[in-house]
Predict the 3D structure of the following.
Amino acid sequence: MKHFLTSVFAAIVCIFLSVPVCSGDEAARNRKAIRIILTTTHNTPRLERSLGSDIKAYVCEDTGTIEVELYEVRQADICIIDSKDNTVDYCTTNGQQFVMLDMPDTPGTYLLVICSEELYAEGIFTVE
């Protein structure tokens, strides 16, 4: 009986490992990375990171969103600003690692700004 249960468990694990994640793999191919320029604030010591930046952002045209991944950021204000200095979308995080903002409807160049006590970051993206 032990061998049977072990075999069933192993088969289930193999099935789950071989099945692609729902639409995540597909969506990842349709995302365009936003190049983020990351700096620390004057109030905090320089961040020591060996794995790169603490923020990643993507334009996802399939879902009509701007996806922001935050690593080791407690609270942050995130906003999208258009070329006329108007705020198009805005949100405040409370420790979430993943945030989605609505992609602007109007074609143009936009600035993504992430501001927190730990860091300040900017990225420019285009909506066609």
